[in-house]
Amino acid sequence: MKVAEMRMLRWMCGHTRKDKIMNEVIREKVGVASMEDKLRESRLRWFGHVKRRDIDALVRRCKRLTMADLRKGRGKPKKYWGEVIRQNMSLLQLTKDMTHDKKVWRSRIMVEG
Predict the structure, then answer these.
(1) Of 7, 16, 47, 103, which has the maximum CB count within 10 A?
(2) Do 108 and 45 form a contact (C-beta atoms < 8 A)?
């Protein structure tokens, strides 16, 4: 995903890989943030939305469902949504209590670009 993203940004600037211009310089020139940062922002924005909803709201009830009699496949288990959210929150030093104030939450998770 990163390669295709940078290819598009280089194309927008009129540069190729042969020009040997660093990715960070191209990002600054175009004024965009990395795709990883934007995905993290989107996940945390949705998490804040879910946490602010009423406890009986459908999205909150779905979060409490348990998967009984679920067979596990071979190999490394896939990351689930809650684990990724915890990693993102620890990276930005956020707590679940911060979700209650929408303006503060949004200001902490926003990515420039």
Answers:
(1) 47
(2) no
